[in-house]
Amino acid sequence: MLAGFLTSCGNDSKKTSNKDSLKNTTMDKKETVSVFFNAVLKGDTATVRELTNSDYIQHNPFIPTGLEPFIQMFPILQESGTTAENVRMFQDGNFVFMHNIWRNATPFGAEEMVSFDIIRLDENGKVAEHWDAMTVLVKETASGRTQTDGPTTVEDLDKTEVNKVLAVSLVEDVLMGKNPSKIGDYISSEE
């Protein structure tokens, strides 16, 4: 649906930004992604161009890859009054992971959506690649939990490498079918 809208949108290069103030600022990767994310929501094309690699890769199947097709989506978001609330943001190396709640999100398929976004920054600290998964926000779930429950800060940093190995093993054994009978090793039936 969004792809159809994109073909009819033009590029809005008249938006103003804080591009000049970014030239003299050194931001860490999470700050860069936060400024990028807010610029997308505001339709601030100049800031998005300043923070994004010219070879930007978009992995959303409904938005063509490349920076210009991505920017062509901004007027649609502005027209819909689309907003987003960042619930959590984590970083690992050149990757920043975000969990967001979107409102007025009809361009994405529903009034309220939840997304998980992964942004990769290149060696120069510019946004280079984006992956996302979006689903409709559910008010009541079978478990009684929301889609955004859970910690919003990182604790137990000493367990990061062990947890990465555990996550990879879960994906390989259960999700990719290497040894699906080991699901009980990863997911508790009591909790």
| Poorly predicted sequence stretches spanning 5 or more consecutive residues | 1-17
Give the rounded overall mean pLDDT. Answer: 88
User: Which descriptor suits the 3D outline?
Assistant: globular
Structural class: alpha+beta
What report would you give on this structure?
By secondary structure, the protein is α+β, with helices and mostly antiparallel strands. It is built from 8 helices and 5 strands, in the order H-H-H-H-E-H-H-E-E-E-E-H-H. The protein has helices at residues 2-7, 19-23, 29-42, 45-51, 67-71, 74-80, 160-175, 183-186; strands spanning 52-58, 83-92, 95-103, 112-121, 127-136. A 5-stranded mixed sheet has the order 1-5-4-3-2. Strand 2 (83-92) and strand 3 form a beta hairpin. Mean pLDDT is 88; it is low at 1-17.
Secondary-structure blueprint of this entry?
Layout: H1 2-7, H2 19-23, H3 29-42, H4 45-51, E1 52-58, H5 67-71, H6 74-80, E2 83-92, E3 95-103, E4 112-121, E5 127-136, H7 160-175, H8 183-186
Parallel strand pairs: 1-5
Antiparallel strand pairs: 2-3, 3-4, 4-5
Helix pairs in contact: 3-4
List keywords for this structure.
191 residues, alpha+beta, 34% helix, disordered N terminus
Brief write-up:
The chain is of the alpha+beta class. The chain is 34% helix and 24% strand.
